[in-house]
Each structure stands twice: as C-alpha cells, then as structure tokens.
Amino acid sequence: MATNKPSGAIPSEQLLLVEGLNDQHVIWNLAKKYDIPETFSVETGKNGGISSALERFRIELKKAKVKTLGIVIDADQDIAARWQAIRNILIRYHCQEIPEQPSSGGWIQALSNELELPRLGVWLMPDNQSSGMLEDFVLSLIPPDDLLLAKAKSIVQEIEQEKLNQYKDFYHAKALIHTWLAWQEKPGQPLGQAITALQADTAIAAKFVIWLNQLFNPIDQ
Questions:
Q1: pLDDT tens digit sequence for 35-69
Q2: To which H or E segment does residue 69 belong?
Q3: Is this model's pTM higher than 0.85 or not?
Q4: Could you tell me where in the chain the CATH 3.40.50 domains are found?
C-alpha cells in the first residue's frame, strides 16, 4: 500500500484514495500550487490500480476513525460503468443520496451519523463528464499556445496514422503527455513534478481544487 504525504502531521481520519503513484504526486503538487491546507493523506489500495482502490474504498467506509473519505479514479472508456461501480458500493452501505449521474464539479456527501458513514467525495478523471484518465487531466493544464505540445501532437498523430504505435488508441493521451514531457528542460520528469511548470489555473483544475477544498476543508467545519 503506497502512501504519499506532505510535510507535517496528517490526520488519519481524512483520506483520499487514488489508483497509483502518478495520481498521488499530481494531486499533492496541484494542492501545493493552490495552497490547499495539508489536512488529508493521499493513498492507494494494497496493490495499486482501480480494483485495489475500489476495494480499499469499501473497507475504509466502515472504519469509525475515518471522518472524510474521497476517491479519485479514471473514468477510462466507460464513465457510466465506473460511476456505477462507486454507486454499487455506497448503496450496499445504504447511502442512497449518490446521484445516478456524476456532476462536472465532482460529488460530495456530508457526514452521515445516521448511517455511520464518513463525509464522502468522488471525482472521475479527467472531468466527471467524459471518458479518459489522469493524463487527459494533466494535458488540459498545458497552455494551448505551447509550441512543444503542438509538435508532440503532430508527431504522435503521424505515428498513429502510420500504425506504428504499439499502444491501444485509448492511451493516446498517455503517449502524448509523455512525449511532451520528454522534450522539457528536464526530460522525462514524472507527471507530478510537471504540474509546477503547467498552467494550473484552467477551468478543470479550478473545479478539482474547489472539490478538494470542499471535501477536506469545508467552511462549515
């Protein structure tokens, strides 16, 4: 089980679950860029990946010490199926408030003493509305007039048109962002480190930051 924490003591009762190390580092670096208070830990499931994250989400739901529980996972190719997987877990624990469809700003459910459930939050990468993954989210943070991005798009598109790519079409965003990262001042740096050099004041980044703050640092607490 991987854990990534900022400096200082982090209350164990506030927990955000993610799929892997890239997600951890992207979230903490984005939080640092936006000065989000260090009030929660970011952790993966035992083995990493979506199945492990969902399983740990289910386990943490019933732990009395957990006061706030969020999960950030990729929508992948079927956002409806991914959302339903979350709903199925929560409905099993009698949480009927989760809507049938995700909203663009992410979902948050207040602490439920009646059901003995923590304050809950769900975000589907990249934007709760479309298929995709973490890499699509990070791509949206690159300034639109970035010349290297335009060149990377051209190169990746050429490779795909010539059927030279070894990856599946769905991983286009992953190939594109890592091509772009390979051409930076420090070639090949991880996604999380790249956040510091990106235009993080985009609409999607702002929505994600608002969701994080509302989940872990609500004004009414």
A1: 999 899 999 988 889 999 999 999 999 898 999 99
A2: strand 68-74
A3: yes
A4: 3-133+200-216
